[in-house]
Amino acid sequence: MKLSRFASQFSGYNQHDSQELLAFLLDGLHEDLNRVKHRPYINSGDADGRSDEEVADEYWANHIARNNSIIVDVCQGQYKSTLVCPVCGKVSVTFDPFMYLSLPLQFASTRSVTAVVFSCDGSVPPTPFTVNVPKQGRCRDLLQALGAACSLKNGEKLLIAEIRNHKIYRFIDDPVLQLSTISDDDHLAVYKLPKLEKRVNYIQFVHRHEDLDHGNNNSLTSWKPYGVPLLAQISRNEIVTGFDIHELVHKMLVPVLRNPDSLHLAVQSSVSTRTHSYHTDSSKCQLLLVDDSNTVIEKSNDAIRIPQSSLATVFFINWPKADLKKIDTHHLEYLPEVFMYAPPAKRTRGEALSLYACLDAFLREEPLVPEDMWYCPRCKEQRQASKKLDLWRLPEVLVIHLKRFSFSRSTKQKLETFVNFPIHDLDLTNYIANKKTSERQIYELYAVSNHYGNMASGHYTAHIKLVDENRWYNFDDSHVASIDEDEVKTAAAYVLFYRRVREQDIARGTSNGSQLYAKRSHGYSHR
């Protein structure tokens, strides 16, 4: 009741969040105990080529000039935050204070993407590749992973296309496009093409198989799109003949033919495909190419007009039933989903998520969400910059919040993940971006806030180490009981409390003892 007078969100008998309560209490205690009574206005300047150490110290001094309390002394650390504009490359670095670390519970910070790579020079048949890319990555990450997987050469490039209804629906070619725009049930074809210095037009060759219309007295053949389209590129303003078009298709089809010598580039008379006119040589595939007006593309020296298209000009390859038997249709038909869903296997305690893995996910570079765009001072526009956090300085007492509760527009859930967190010797030395700090950053656990239950109802307990006794206790409402140290780690752990262990304490072997901590606690109380 007293608390709800100051923070109405904690009123009533509903379940509340212990981390939110902790944040409110620490912030309130800081405000009440702030030694600064009149806060000066301070504007932190840009780095302007200065060292990170100098800029970080300036930010921290400015922060202390406005916020100076025992809460800051004991509980606050400092981030290094780096923003990079995806368009002009402008880099902005700031150093911000933090009271606690909120770590995501991610088993995987990557996602699996499957796509089929088509070689446009006919050197290899279409080949599926599955690569791992950052969940919050961009198109350039996928291109880099696929390029490594298919051994992309210097003079080659990859063009990713989403296929719908057997045609190219869109090209995914913007290097800064977020991979979250690619759904798990999309179908991706990747075309390996030579790099050309001139601007190019793309031609997609859509396969069609015959579909006899029995309802028509004339029994005319209709054609249905089929399989995965092929893609070729030509330089703009280049004169292209019927021979050139046929040669492009021939080259791309060679890997899918059961007998590569069976492809016969027949000279067609200028007749519509509606007449169903083919050569009678049954041992050869009669390659029949038509444009979108259903006019046959002859194998001749006549120039072929390639219309300008925002996507890719469409030509069709019509396959009679007899000819389909002469090719490996699996290569033309097979285009798996980006990711085939399978229920995740339950992880046992032995396969627990490491606290270090959570920290890695938290510090990984990610693009800002669209609702949190950054104003680039160089572009003079809002940009979806990439953001990278680093730990610069750590507090005496480090509070780590495990983000077990996830919210979306339609769902709320609690993650029951078992996190394997160190009780002794949490070593964060390698996570400190300030490499001029020589002291090791070692922490020891002294308390855990546990949450049992779900989003609707639950129960809190605490595991606390009484350092004077060097013994752990379980606090469960009015019930208090001694527990063994190996009982401290559970899947209910929600907020972790660590204290710094000095290097000289480790050398003296007193990191687990009580005298040093009691003396330090007495010092804090006196202050």
Q: Which percent range fits the helix content?
A: 10-25%
Strand fraction band? 25-35%
What's the number of extended β-strand segments?
Answer: 31
In CATH, the homologous superfamily of the largest domain goes by the name Cysteine proteinases
Which structural class should the secondary elements be placed in? alpha+beta
Uncertain segments: 264-283, 341-351, 513-527
Please report the first level of CATH classification, the CATH class of the largest domain: Alpha Beta
The shape is elongated
The first-to-last residue Cα distance is 30 Å
CATH-defined architecture of the largest domain: Alpha-Beta Complex
User: What's the tally of helices?
Assistant: 11
Mean pLDDT, all residues? 81
Largest sheet: 8 strands, mixed
Number of domains: 2
Radius of gyration: 32 Å
Classify the fold: give the CATH topology of the largest domain.
Cathepsin B, Chain A
Task: Give a verbal description of the structure.
With 527 residues, the protein is of the alpha+beta class. The chain has two domains: 15-106 and 364-511, Cathepsin B, Chain A; 110-213 and 220-266 and 284-333, Ubiquitin-like (UB roll). It has eleven helices and 31 strands. A hairpin with a 4-residue loop joins strand 23 and strand 24. The radius of gyration is 32 Å and the shape is elongated. Mean pLDDT is 81; it is low at 264-283, 341-351 and 513-527.
Question: What's the arrangement of secondary structure elements?
Answer:
Elements: H1 2-6, H2 18-33, H3 52-66, H4 70-75, E1 77-84, E2 91-98, E3 101-104, E4 110-119, E5 127-134, H5 139-149, E6 156-164, E7 167-172, E8 188-194, E9 200-212, E10 221-235, E11 240-241, H6 242-253, E12 263-264, E13 285-286, E14 288-291, E15 303-304, E16 313-319, H7 321-324, H8 329-333, E17 353-354, H9 355-363, E18 366-367, E19 374-376, E20 381-383, E21 386-393, E22 397-403, E23 405-407, E24 412-414, E25 419-420, E26 426-427, E27 442-453, E28 458-466, E29 471-476, E30 479-483, E31 493-501, H10 503-508, H11 515-526
